[in-house]
Design brief:
The structure holds three protein chains of three kinds.
Chain A: H1 3-27, E1 30-31, E2 34-35, H2 39-61, H3 73-78, H4 87-109, H5 111-126, H6 131-152
Antiparallel strand pairs in A: 1-2
Helix pairs in contact in A: 1-2, 4-5, 5-6
Chain B: H1 3-14, H2 17-35, H3 41-53, H4 58-83, H5 92-103, H6 107-141, H7 145-160, H8 167-181, E1 184-185, E2 192-193, H9 207-224, H10 244-265, H11 271-286, H12 299-314, H13 316-322, H14 328-339, H15 348-351, H16 353-384, H17 389-408, H18 412-429, H19 436-458, H20 464-467, H21 469-502
Antiparallel strand pairs in B: 1-2
Helix pairs in contact in B: 1-16, 2-4, 2-16, 3-4, 3-14, 4-5, 4-6, 4-12, 4-14, 4-16, 5-6, 5-12, 6-10, 6-12, 6-13, 6-16, 7-11, 7-19, 7-21, 8-19, 9-17, 9-18, 10-11, 10-12, 11-12, 17-18
Chain C: H1 2-19, E1 34-38, H2 45-56, E2 65-69, H3 76-84, E3 91-96, H4 99-102, E4 118-127, E5 130-134, H5 142-152, E6 156-160, H6 166-178, E7 182-186, H7 190-198, E8 204-207, H8 209-217, E9 221-226, E10 253-260, H9 265-280, H10 282-290, E11 298-299, H11 300-321
Parallel strand pairs in C: 1-2, 1-3, 6-7, 6-8
Antiparallel strand pairs in C: 3-10, 4-10, 4-11, 5-8, 5-9
Helix pairs in contact in C: 2-10
The chains are: A mainly alpha, B mainly alpha, C alpha/beta.
Chain lengths: 164, 503, 326
């Protein structure tokens, strides 16, 4: 079992235990002929525990020979880690951070400005584009979004609270 | 008025310039809405409803809204195939093989067969609607909680076929989906589950946020991590339409999908999802090469797409004949009719034959408009994939974010979207198939709710699920399926044991 | 140099677009469209009433009223949205007085106070609870059904729109008052509950007149009783529960309009005046009649008193019937 699978398996087991416990004590499972709110979640919790155990057993009993392909998670996790993170991992983290920042700013500074910053941030930080190209792409995309959603489709989007 | 006279008069109504224009407008808007992830037809119809007040006759208004509704069904497959972004529940199944086909450079044929299948299914369904609407509607009424339980359970079982290589992992995903589905207020007991004090969770997660997050955003995060440039292969740009071979493979899938979608679609609340699932499972079962499913089998796109289009047409039946709306979009159309003083129901055909037949005829016309609109667009969409990923990825994220936000106008949905995206990424890395997740999410509450309602109805007697004829039939199909799977699995195990012994 | 110029122009354009779309606070109310938040999905009785208002509103106001559906959380999500929105009169609550306002606070902790955090502007309609059964049912009256149940010692099954809602409480009250066992089966909303009865899956059903009237006209339902002190004018042949010897009368569902409590007085006065004109409009009355929803207008102050009364009545009933969300 790869390291990631191992961790995931534990997460599944832990989740199963938590859900079963919470359902039984907080949600009340009722009796079979009148199931309560916790009935289905309780069964789900038990199922997760059972499946987690089964998964582990499968991995132990049916150890398949290590595959030669280098694209699976096995390769990524078990190889010797290079001294610095590969660029692609960094890219992903930056993209994730930019997206989270967008979510935080969306209601605080308004849809248009947030979209502008998101796109700009993405081009500069994630894609490492040159400034001019980044700005042009940003403005075009933000303008297109605004036109499409606010004017044409009249979707309700937050405007900048600092201005109104 | 006989059916024949009715349909002729309907065409006269549908083909007037004003109604044609409204139909086309509806189809156009609907396609755009379907293509945009997150923005669903129900929301769009709601937005345009006030505009219909100023139109005096109800016919153009309904034609407009109906056009949006199934235009969205046509468009929904576009993002599913190209970007792994399902627009609605019924399009999730299309993502599975459709996106794989796009990755292999076959986006054109996938989109093409989806459009063609949708057209055939939609047209056949409208014919069925015309001829059999009243008796089918009565049949639909007979679907009470026990029947809904059995059917949804059957659907869930079919969802297991989406689990790819590892059934264990597929089941874990399914259970996860069931748990996500139980977050929020439980309608039977009134209790709020798993909300941990967060108010926004009391209404549960939104399906679109979940599906788009796990499938679409997860895919984007995964792609970003790949070394080198990510370019969804489109070397064979010339092959924009399905080849003859594709058509031959798909035609039975389309036929089967149409029938499945038509009948299951009549059932209010979930008809389209279940029909797309059943279609996929059926296609996989009858196929001579089932291992292709999940890797880009064209039948896996043709069948479910036909099923969900047939279902969206047949979901009009309960509305027009009984006055019962089956889903959110139809409910909007229902509201519009009522405001205009037209009461959908058994008297509609008598009191307002122009509305009844006009709408039905416009559905024929609409289907034709949509295929004319969509087929040439296939080439355009395929070109979309050549946009550099550095621009495509953030733009898609923006679209999905706006779509998610617009559901309830709360930033919470944006955070939920991102969280689901992370989940999708993790599942992808761990080689889990995400397919069963959104399906279990939708079917779980149906199964649980219907079961508890049935038990309340019967006073705790479990026999209710087998003493009623419809439910019994479904349970029998279910049992056959399970037995069939078991036999198949045993045979396969014996064979491989035999092979090993021989070695 | 060229890059600098282009860059500056582009940024200026961007700033210009970013500044657009904002409305200055000095404009006279209303200067932009008003959102009417509905705590239910489309097609339901609250939604339809709101759309009737939406349709007639532009006759009496310079800005349109736009219906926004926010179903979920049994209505709490929508109301909370209004409570937390800016009290500037551009976000209204259509459907004030629904089950989750007058019934739910007795059963669970609410994230807001439906009476302190909102200001009542007008009562539009009261939807009573009508008790119906399928046309193919063996019973022609409620007392018949009750007698059968007692004789056979079998429970009566009834569909209701949600757990511990107005309909559920009414049916439970009947059950207690008549001394018979009625099992209420909650569904996901009024339409769902009515459909279940139409399919004959339950013996009894409760619904609002707008939900059941079409089915009664279609000959699919038989109305058995209304839960009101006097007969409902839209259903003159249907006896009240009291006439049948069952001492139950509830307010059903009250539908009004509210706004966040801190909304300025002039805005509230404008809304009150406009809504009064809307309810007196002939087109509005016709649409509501078509929808089987009676127009029962009360102004803000009277509506506030009425809400308190209805709320207290439900409180008493819930205590008597010992209803809880266990």
């Amino acid at each position: 079992m790869t390291k990631s699978d191992h961790v995931a398996n534990l997460v599944v087991l832990a989740l199963g235990v938590f859900v079963a416990y919470h359902s039984y004590y907080s949600l009340k499972i009722g009796i079979l002929i009148t199931p309560g709110a916790g009935f289905l979640p309780f069964l789900c919790g038990l199922a997760l525990i059972a499946l987690g155990i089964f998964w582990r057993l499968q991995a132990i009993l049916f150890k398949s020979p290590p595959k030669a392909d280098s694209k699976g998670p096995t390769a990524v996790v078990c190889e010797v880690q290079p001294a610095t993170l590969p660029r692609s991992r960094v890219k992903l983290c930056l993209a994730f951070a930019t997206t989270v920042a967008y979510a935080c700013l969306f209601e605080r500074i308004g849809f248009f400005l947030a979209t502008l910053l998101f796109m700009l941030g993405w081009q500069l930080v994630v894609e490492r584009e040159r400034w001019l190209k980044a700005i042009i792409i940003t403005v075009l995309c933000a303008a297109a979004m605004y036109t499409l959603f606010s004017y044409l489709l009249r979707v309700e989007l937050p405007s900048n609270p600092l201005l109104s | 008025m006989g059916i024949f006279d009715g349909i002729i008069s309907g065409f006269f109504i549908a083909l007037t310039p004003m109604n044609l224009m409204f139909g086309f407008l509806g189809a156009l808007i609907g396609t755009a809405v379907g293509v945009l992830p997150g923005l669903g037809p129900a929301a769009t119809i709601a937005l345009l409803l006030p505009i219909t007040y100023s139109i005096s006759s109800p016919v153009p208004a309904v034609i407009l809204m109906a056009g949006i509704y199934y235009g969205a069904m046509y468009g929904g497959s576009t993002t599913s195939i190209l970007l792994n972004l399902p627009g609605e529940a019924a399009s999730v199944v299309t993502c599975i093989d459709g996106y794989k086909m796009a990755q292999k450079g076959q986006a054109g044929p996938a989109l093409g067969i989806a459009a063609i299948g949708s057209f055939i299914a939609g047209s056949v369904a409208v014919v069925g609607l015309t001829l059999f609407a009243p008796p089918i509607a009565e049949f639909a009424l007979g679907f009470g909680p026990p029947e809904k339980f059995s059917l949804a359970l059957l659907g869930l079982l079919m969802a297991v076929t989406l689990s790819g290589e590892s059934v264990t992992k597929g089941l874990i995903i399914m259970v996860l989906g069931l748990l996500f589905g139980s977050v929020g207020i439980d309608p039977i007991s009134g209790k709020s589950r798993f909300d941990f004090g967060v108010i926004e969770l009391q209404s549960g997660f939104d399906f679109v946020t979940l599906a788009v997050g796990v499938f679409g955003l997860g895919e984007i995060f995964y792609n970003l991590e790949q070394e080198g440039n990510v370019e969804i292969v489109t070397t064979k740009v010339g092959k924009v339409f399905p080849a003859m071979a594709d058509w031959v493979k798909s035609r039975m899938a389309i036929l089967r999908g149409t029938l499945i979608g038509f009948f299951i679609g009549i059932i209010p609340g979930g008809g389209a999802v279940i029909s797309s699932l059943v279609s996929y499972a059926v296609e996989k079962k009858v196929s001579k090469h089932p291992e292709e499913f999940g890797q880009g089998a064209i039948e896996g796109v043709a069948g479910p797409e036909s099923a969900n289009n047939a279902a969206s047409s047949s979901s009009f039946i309960p509305l027009l004949t009984l006055g019962i709306p089956g889903n959110a979009s139809i409910a909007m159309i229902f509201a519009c009719l009522l405001i205009k003083g037209v009461k959908p129901g058994p008297f509609l055909i008598v009191e307002h034959p122009d509305v009844f037949w006009g709408v039905i005829a416009s559905m024929y016309v609409g289907n034709i408009m949509l295929i004319i609109l969509n087929l040439p667009l296939v080439g355009v969409w395929v070109q979309l994939l050549r946009v550099p990923y550095g621009i495509l990825a953030p733009v898609v994220i923006l679209f999905t974010a706006i779509g998610s936000y617009s559901i309830a106008n709360q930033a919470f949905d944006l955070y939920a979207l991102i969280a689901f995206g992370v989940l999708g990424y993790v599942l992808r890395k761990l080689k889990f198939e995400a397919g069963p997740l959104p399906l279990a999410f939708i079917l779980g509450p149906m199964i649980e709710g219907s079961m508890r309602q049935s038990l309340l109805m019967s006073g705790g007697n479990f026999l209710i699920f087998v003493t009623r004829p419809i439910s019994l039939t479904i349970v029998a199909v279910f049992a056959l399926f399970v037995v069939g799977q078991a036999v198949f699995a045993i045979r396969r195990a014996k064979r491989s044991a035999g092979v090993q012994a021989a070695v | 140099m060229k890059k600098l110029i282009v860059g500056t122009i582009v940024i200026a354009l961007a700033a210009a677009m970013g500044l657009s779309g904002s409305v200055s606070a000095q404009d006279k109310y209303p200067s932009k469209p008003i959102s009417g938040i509905v705590p239910a999905s489309a097609g339901g009785s609250t939604d339809l009433m709101s759309r009737a208002i939406e349709k007639v509103w532009p006759k009496y106001s310079s800005q349109p009223l736009v219906v926004v559906n926010k179903p979920g959380g049994a209505g709490v999500v929508a109301t909370e949205f209004v409570v937390r929105s800016k009290p500037d009169g551009y976000t209204l609550y259509l459907g004030y007085g629904s089950g989750h306002d007058i019934v739910m606070p007795h059963l669970q902790k609410m994230p807001y106070d439906p009476y302190k955090d909102l200001v009542p502007i007008a009562r539009i309609s009261v939807h009573s609870v009508v008790v119906v059964t399928g046309a193919k049912s063996d019973f022609n009256s409620l007392p018949d059904m009750i007698a059968w149940s007692k004789k056979e010692n079998k429970p009566i099954t009834s569909s209701v729109s949600m757990k511990a809602g107005a309909q559920d409480i009414t049916i439970t009250a009947i059950s207690k008052a008549a001394g018979v066992n009625i099992v209420t089966v909650p569904f996901a909303g009024g339409a769902d509950a009515v459909t279940a009865l139409a399919g004959g899956h339950v013996m009894l059903g409760a619904g609002h007149p707008s939900e059941v009237a079409p089915h009664i006209k279609a000959g699919r339902f038989k109305p058995l009783a209304v839960a009101l002190p006097q007969r409902d004018p839209s259903l003159p042949n249907v006896p009240t529960l009291k006439e049948l010897g069952i001492n139950v009368s509830t307010w059903g569902s009250v539908k009004g309009v509210g706004a966040p409590a801190a909304t300025p007085k002039e805005v509230v006065a404008y809304l009150e005046a406009t809504l009064k004109k809307v309810t007196e409009d002939e087109e509005f009355k016709k649409i509501m009649a078509d929808l089987d929803q009676p127009v029962m207008y009360l102004n803000g102050a009277d509506f506030a008193k009425f809400l308190q009364e209805a709320h207290a009545d439900y409180g008493k009933l819930i205590k008597e019937l010992n209803i809880t969300i266990q």
